[in-house]
Amino acid sequence: MHDSTSSSPKTPSESGSATALEENYSTVNYSTVRTLADDDFIKAAASLDTPAVLKVSDDDETPKDSRPSLENLEKGEQEPVLIDEEGDSHIDPPPDGGYGWVVVFASFMTHVIVLGIQYSWGVYQSYFLLNNTFNTSQTVLSFVGTLAAGGMPLFGIPSGRLAERFGFRTMMTIGSIILVVALVIASFATEVWHLLLTQGLMFGIGSSFTYFPAVSLPSQWFDKKRSVATGIAVAGSGIGGFIFSNVVGKLLVLLDFRWTLRIMALIILVVMGVVLFLVKARIPPKPHSSTNWGMFKDLRFALLFIMGFLATFGYMIPFVYIPSYGVKVIGLSQEQGSLILSITNFGSAVGRVMLGMGADQYVGKINMLTLCMFLSSVCILLWWPFTNSFGTLLSFGFVNTFFSGGFISMFPVVIADLFGVERMASVMGMLYTASAVGNFAGSPLAGVIIESKGWVPAILYAGFLTLSSVIFLLAVRFTVSRKILARV
């Protein structure tokens, strides 16, 4: 085998022949797997741990005209299989279907459970405030939801790295156990700090160990349909939020928060048991996987890191405060506030699927992510301050999260496209760490502003931070293509 430090390969058009293709591409280290005729694949050729060579079979049972050959690779009629120096096979190109749809369903259900329950925190918070359950302020209570939401990205780096090292199913199993234990212990809480440690921090850690493997899996199975597959998977969080906001609201009225938490723990145990049976990764574990801190030298990575830092300051505020806004400002009932939050989550689910389809077929992934964040900021700044009834608040919640849901569905797809799927879990973990600060500080700071200055300044704070993230997305977009109308 050639030395892996050979000069950069030429494109098929530059090489001019199958022989040149063999010479140039037999030494490339691949970061993603595509046909050699695909320019994106050639551009994505970058460093991996082990050098890879083309494996082209020549069996006697296959008609000569249809046998795998470098000529067919050049024409795009044959997909390569990659093998490392020891002859171990790497993954084939994503099938864009088949068992991949089962994996999408498993990822979808993980989002339903993990993020659906997490997004229903606003109902608990409104209930605790209305009943003065823990005799504390809105700001302190918001830290419980903040710890759950912020803990997930905070532990993203170890979660992604451990998933790649020990296997996705293993980490999702550990995460599921932590989630169940967290809610069971929280059901015995007598002080607010008990909730902070259990329903907050512990739930956040369990969410991290399940979320990052689950959201990374669809990209291993899909290429051309990656946006819509990921959109369907992450739509589970919106559907889950819609379901659990209603269910939690009803259970809190019929029972109390203790039995509500225990029922949620039982639901996690049953559903995740099924998910863990179905989930399957195409990329095998890497025993020596390590965090690539050199990614911060990549301009696109750095810009996405800053974008995630800014965007998440405002992202969770509508989810956390819409029920309280409806009850305290508009004068709605607890049940109406819960209903609005559930419709808000449903809007997010619809947006994630439809925006994913639009990104794949018409707009492009980075363009769609940028457009989503811009339109969400417009909704927050120009619509929310003027809501004064059940109908106006409901419509705002639905439309805003329809667009903001694109942040959840498009971000993983953009990461996969820019940095490849082989290390997607760890790269995502690194990028999502930036959002931990926003998740931790965003909602509590909004609570402080509400209590000291009122609701409108808090809304403006959420809107302008979301808008500022668009600047960095535009910078990423123009590093990929400077053409205004390019579909990227």
Overall description:
The structure is a single chain. 71% of the residues lie in helices and 1% in strands. It contains 19 helices and 2 strands. Strands 1-2 form a two-stranded antiparallel ribbon. α8 packs antiparallel against α18, α11 runs antiparallel to α17 and α16 runs antiparallel to α19. The longest helix has 30 residues. The chain is globular.
Give a quick summary of the entry:
By secondary structure, this protein is mostly helical.
Protein topology:
Elements: H1 12-15, H2 18-25, H3 39-44, E1 53-55, H4 70-75, E2 81-83, H5 100-119, H6 121-131, H7 138-154, H8 156-166, H9 168-186, H10 192-221, H11 226-254, H12 257-278, H13 299-315, H14 317-330, H15 334-363, H16 365-382, H17 390-419, H18 424-452, H19 455-480
Antiparallel strand pairs: 1-2
Stretches where pLDDT is under 50 for at least 5 consecutive residues are: 1-90
Helix content range: over 70%
- Distance N to C terminus: 36 Å
Shape: globular
Which short descriptors sum up this protein?
19 helices, 1% strand, mainly alpha, two-stranded antiparallel sheet, 2 strands
